[in-house]
Amino acid sequence: MRTIELNKRQEQILEIVKVQGPITGEQIADQLDLTRATLRPDLAILTMSGFLDARPRVGYFYSGKNGTQLLGEQMKKLQVKDYQSIPVVVDENVSVYDAICTMFLEDVGTLFVVNAHALLVGVLSRKDLLRASIGQQDLSSVPVHIIMTRMPNITVCRKEDYLVDVSQLLIDKQIDALPVVKEGEKGLEVIGRLTKTSITKAFVELSHTE
Ligand code: ADP
């Protein structure tokens, strides 16, 4: 966690060491077109505050602490578009029975409901379908638009959104999935699906990066 604000030159030094470390003070000074003496206070600050480690005759390199910081930075860059999966949609007039079959066949936990213009009108979760099933009704004669969670109460995301922000939405709203949408002329088109599984995949992938 950063406790002090770095100035522009210190940020530049950090960038250089990040990419090229271990690197000597002279080499850093050369790249910034400055003298070693001019850089000395900045290097001292970066070393004392724990951003950099210095070893005699080896040079400067990132400390272990900054590995955590780097990981945080990497995580914040992850975007929905790289982790979204294919959405499974049903028409608003299909029956609850058919929606249950679709959920099993497609092996998903959330279905997105669209109207005749293929625009998002609702969401169906496992429990929505279970709830409808424990009633008395004939499930083949109840259309899903009767039981779904409907617009405008649907939480959506866009492919450029950051995964951490979307994860926070999943937590705050206590839901398992979000439709990835894009603006159509008359409403929202569903172009993807972002679920807790997508986030789990991103988490595992991050553990493989250095
Ligand atoms: P489950 O109901 O199977 O536990 P969820 O936690 O995802 O699954 O859903 C909880 C409730 O929130 C359900 O009624 C569902 O319709 C609704 N819901 C699910 N996803 C969304 C969403 N993206 N936006 C709004 N409501 C949603």
Summarize the structure.
By secondary structure, the protein is α+β, with helices and mostly antiparallel strands. The chain has helices at 8-20, 25-32, 36-48, 64-77, 96-106, 126-133, 163-173, 196-208; strands spanning 52-55, 59-62, 89-91, 110-114, 120-125, 149-150, 177-183, 188-195. The longest helix is centred in the middle third of the chain and has 14 residues, at 64-77.
* Percentage of residues in helical conformation: 40-55%
What is the distance, rounded to the nearest whole angstrom, between the alpha carbons of the first and last residues? 19 Å
Which kinds of small molecule does this entry bind, naming each only once? adenosine-5'-diphosphate
Largest sheet: 4 strands, mixed
| H/E element order | HHHEEHEHEEHEHEEH
CATH topology of the largest domain: CBS-domain
Rg from C-alpha positions? 26 Å
What's the total helix number? Answer: 8
Shape: elongated
Mean pLDDT: 91
Structural class: alpha+beta
Write down the CATH class of the largest domain: Alpha Beta
Strand content: 15-25%
The total of beta strands comes to 8
Number of domains: 2
Task: Please name the defining characteristics of this protein.
single chain; alpha+beta; Arc Repressor Mutant, subunit A; CBS-domain; four-stranded mixed sheet; 8 helices; 8 strands; binds adenosine-5'-diphosphate
Descriptive report:
This protein is an alpha+beta fold. The chain folds into 2 domains: 63 residues, Arc Repressor Mutant, subunit A (Orthogonal Bundle); 126 residues, CBS-domain (Roll), CATH 3.10.580. The protein is built from 8 helices and 8 strands, in the order αααββαβαββαβαββα. Strands 3-4-5-6 form a 4-stranded mixed sheet. Strands 1-2 form a two-stranded antiparallel ribbon. β1 and β2 form a beta hairpin. It is elongated. Bound molecules: adenosine-5'-diphosphate. Adenosine-5'-diphosphate (ADP) binds next to β5, α6 and β7. The site of adenosine-5'-diphosphate has 15 residues, from β5, α6 and β7.
